[in-house]
Amino acid sequence: HARQTSPKSYAFFSTEMTLRASERLRLETALRHAVDRGEFVLFYQPKVEADTGRVEGAEALIRWMHPEWGIVPPDRFIPALEEGDLIHPVGEWVLREACAACVRIHAHGHADMRIAVNISPKQFLERDVVTLVRDTLDETGLPPAFLELEITEALLVQDVERVAGILAQLKKLGVTLAVDDFGTGYSSLRYLAEFPLDTLKIDRAFIVDVEHDRKSAAITTMVQSMAHTMGLHVVAEGVENDAQIDFLRNLGCVTVQGYYYSRPLPEDQFLRWLDAHPAPTQPSPNTCDH
Ligand code: C2E
Ligand code: MG
Ligand code: MG
Ligand code: MG
Q: Locate the EAL domain: which residues (predicted)?
């Protein structure tokens, strides 16, 4: 009786399949036009040292300004870009635009701001990302030390030797490397010893209940302590309230990113936010020598 399917449920299934396929096609077509028409923009979200209040820089986050649909968030279209080849032209545009924006931010009087850019695993595996980064830095005039590349654990479980080689070459250029959404992937902790990383970004999933949940608090404390011992920098993602910021300030040597300080902003608003953000009143009480 397992083969019995009611006509109704079959019809529903098939309609849904058709709908999904046609929707996907519509999205792909719209994305191809978006690339040609330049409908993407970058928003910038500040990264702030929890204990001193010093702004360290910003993460560049892509948005799609669709003429009818309005602002489309990246989770809605990055996977579709990654399915095809469109992630390459878009990823190249993001890198160039973010580096150029960082140069403009420096010229605006914030000469120590760094910029972080998300790089999709496909950009490492299917293109020469080292040449891309080197050429982009040359073209925009951004000194490499101001650029951080955010990678995901998904990249670190690929061909380990090849990926380690690429990351080592990127480090040689003088850029820094961060692991995004740390703690949510399926890779082992061993990669921390195998890859030349600089920063761990603790995923928002641990920060969201860090003040109520002893396990999230323990994981966050453990990651900060381990990272500090290894000479890695720590960023806490998705910090929204006073209790979370208090917890992280007590840990020491943590950079925070989240709505607590600011949502991601268009470039002009980000510059105004920087202008208005008070300079730190005290030097760092801890020696964060990394
Ligand atoms: P991500 O790199 O982990 O970026 C952090 C995300 O968390 C951003 O979402 C940001 O707006 C959001 N966020 C920051 N603070 C808070 C907070 O306090 N509360 C909450 N609820 N959310 C917060 P966004 O901009 O929608 O980006 C989502 C993801 O899309 C990014 O996650 C990243 O994986 C991807 N992405 C964004 N821009 C790019 C890009 O240029 N290239 C690639 N390959 N991926 C990108
Ligand atoms: Mg990121
Ligand atoms: Mg993240
Ligand atoms: Mg995240």
A: 24-278
